[in-house]
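Side project, low priority. Logging it here so it doesn't get lost.
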Amino acid sequence: MRRRDFGLGALAMGSAAGFSARAQTPQPTPQPAAPPAAPATPDQLMASLREQSKAAALAGLALNRDEVLWQGVAGVRRTDQPDLATLSDRWHLGSNTKAMTAAVYARLVEKGQAKWGATVPELFPDLRPNPAWSAITVEQLMGHVGGLSDKTLLDVPWLIAARGDPRPLRDQRRALAAKAFASPPAGKPGVFEYANADFILLGAAIERIADAPWEDVIKAEVFDPLELSTAGFGAPLGEAPWGHARDGHPLDPTGVSDNPPALGPAGTVHMALADYAKFLRVFMSDGKGLLSADSVRHLTTPPTDEVRSYAGGWITFKASPWTGKPGLAHEGSNTWWHMVALVSPASGVAVVTATNDDARGAKAAQALALGLTKRFDS
């Protein structure tokens, strides 16, 4: 199985001109398509990038703390049908789900049900983790520096088995946690290694604390408070765009069209861009009614002191390559969809772009995000 078939790789921004992949194996830095010179409007930029890429559809939205500054969409829901994509359509978030899972944990901390600095044995007292995990904290898991590795946990046999696993999702995630923590870390604690397992197991910890499936907890703690009425899990059903395979054909969402549901906390949420904008606003507005300002700071403070690092589901920058100001970024892909989010908390501007055609549209989504940021956050 090809690396991209895992559909689990988030992309960390490497420079203003490109994004460096962090996934199962080292990959060359993909270069996003350069925006056309001096586009007259965001709509023209989006249309041009979509035409250049031949992606099924491309969508974007720019916002500040108070309002949507621009939103647009170009293309079709699926390449074998004429139906156009719309502004109200739902898009797959991929690994951008991770920041939402981290926000759920922060909500539980604020309620006194969880705590910052919790160690693996405290998160999973019933599993009796290997002593090597005794000092690994929840912040390290959220920062991908706890020593977990997808290479040993999310291998091809597990991925295949997970698609047909009849057990409740809570049981599947607990079983993965038991496997992960029964042995010493496969990676080196303190060294960054992007691992979807970190957030799957964070989801398992949330399920133990709340005594409910992650899907129910994130709805109660994030979707409902922010009124994210279009939020759901997996490829969106009904009147919605379809994801597209690498050969360009659309994938029926009732078939194999997303990662196994057990991976939910690491990347299976979908929603309309206007709803996702409400979540982004949390990180520009001291919590925006969802979290305290202290929780937002905690979630976006990395456990390692680097110019670019990772915390709480975000790639963090002391000086972002797109504005030079502090920033947050993330990309998500399940192999068939792609999303990019760039947030400038100090200036109170964010952009999000999405495509339902990862193979052809990922670079266009990156270029659109950079172009929108240049226009609205300069």
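Brief comment: Confidence is low (pLDDT under 50) at residues 1-30.
Revisit when time allows.
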